[in-house]
Amino acid sequence: MVSYIVFLLVIAGIYALLAQSLCLAWGVTGLVNLGLAGFFAIGAYASATVVKWGGAPVPLGLLAALAAGAIAGFVVCVSTLRLRDDYLAIVTLGFAEAVRVVASNEIWLTGGTDGISGIPAGLPRDWGQGFHLASLAAVSAVVGAVWLALRRLVASPWGRALRAVREDQVVAAVAGKRVTRLKAEAFAISAAIAALAGALYGHYTSYIAPEIFQPLVTIYVFLAVTAGGNGRPTGATVGAYLLIAFLEATRFAAEVVPGVSALQAAALREMAVGVALILLLRFRQRGIFPELNQKAPA
Amino acid sequence: MTLLTRRAAFAAGTAMLAVPSLARAQGAPIRLGTLTPLTGAGGPYGPVMANCVRAVIAEVNAAGGVLGRQVQLVSEDDQTNPEAGVRAARKLIDVDRVAAIMGTWASSVTTAVAPLCWESRTFLATVSGADSITALPHNGWLVRTQPNTTLQGRKFGEYVLELGAKRAFFMAPQTPFTQSQFTNMKVALERGGGSADLLIYDANKPSLRTEVDQALRARPEVIVLGGYTPDSTVLLRDIFRAGFRGKLLAFAYSVNQQMIGSLPHEVTEGIYTLAPSPAEGSGGFDRVKRIVGSDNPDPYTCQIYDHVNLVLMAMAAGRDGTGQAIRDSIRRVSQGGGERVDNAVDGLRIVAAGGKVDYDGASGPCDFTDAGDISDCRFRYEQVRAGRQTLLRIA
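Predict the joint structure of the above. Result:
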């Protein structure tokens, strides 16, 4: 049971990174990024290929993931400058699917649908429980660092400008903010965080394949961020941990419901996710940690 | 107010997590797990597979269980997604402490789950076909009942030649076995003076007309379909609309009775299908038919029927309800001579009396190589005639 919970905490930490990425792009800047799974994949593949086939140490792989994510985020952002809301959402969703299709078919680069197995973790796997605890410490430290950094960024004048862009980019532009540059910066940083999550996922689980990066992951993260409060890094982080706790708890809850087959239990779990989202949006539209109004400096 | 709701949410979450510990307190049954796709792309197959295992275990429990202990089944959903599959496998291994996980379907899920299994001494039986799976460093913790794609590809190639055709066109979505299937089919065809082309399509497209037109440009005599039921249905419609009059060859798991029933007869008429098959006269296949209540159980259900029977008998032969016992003893009940059995109830009785069994299952003879592949496999050749699958031969 302990190793199961440690494992879940690591996975939840990775989801927390994805949630923080979405918090910055969507919650703070207002860029609906349905392509999160794509950036997650880019990071995973960048780090896995550099470390497994390039023989680089794991920290270098993580840096490669950050760089690849930031570049991809920058490219996606500048190529969609005139899009907002639904239109941006559709294009980013398409981007994520394109990443997945490329990963499935460019076998020389990504190993195709077989994926890449046996990715080194940077820590010895034969430590058993120790390996999982060390991974938990590492991932939690990264989550904490990103959370602190994001909090400072969001509270800074730069973060305030992002919120201005979110509310009305014309007004922000009139006030002298460089909207394009702000959006590109926010999107690139957000994509880099998602890519970092992907890299950590690959190194921890030792295996990545295109099928992992389905839109389902993006939807789960949207759920987490909505639950936690999309404008605050704290909300997004807590939301991600709650999401994994909820997803796994439904597993046990479905088991104790009498008289349902395995298939019905699986369907019940999916229904529970939907019901939770509806209840949340009905009773707590702004999440558990709603965005606070910043007081003007005295 | 905020604090109260937050607390309530945490309390509810923790309470839900605590529930299984209550259930664990009684007795010490042997636990086995299935990890099949109940939702997602594998959704048409997984539920039937899980039910089949449940039925076998119920029979065995009614006959007294294994080593005097009852067997308990935990069925989880891999959502046809490696990430969700890994979470479900962790739960089966760490919380339920199952001795074996059976039925992983998608090759990517199997590859993701396999390291967890061998690290935690849990046995894994899979139906995934990708060649790379048995090449993993699994040290005997894994077997698969699906013939690998090298063998299947060769059989397809040889059958095309046998149908009197030289030019074949292989259409398939990108899956872990597509390349190997095509390469081996091509080798077999070229040896007989034929040729083969490949076209990879996107399995999610609602129409595949452009792909079909592209295939027809090569003037193939046979089109070989390499997809699953949903995309093959779309493909067959478009092949019919395009007026193709050559022969069609497909996997029996995609062109199954369910699909034949959902399409007009003229679309499916004459399609040849191939499937790994048990030897004629084997009782395992009939038992699966009875369990699932269908004349044409899909090969995955047949295979998972074999998984659970082998796992139960291996535990009995190894005198221990653990993954280690299954790993060490599975080949003692699957091969090497002895009394032939096709179900665990008979097998367990013989093993308990000190006998040796040799299991012949619903999917085939189930003899394994050291790497975990099946060493011998017959194929079932069928043709769709007037909306029914008609058996041509088993060879």
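Chain A has one domain: 2-212.
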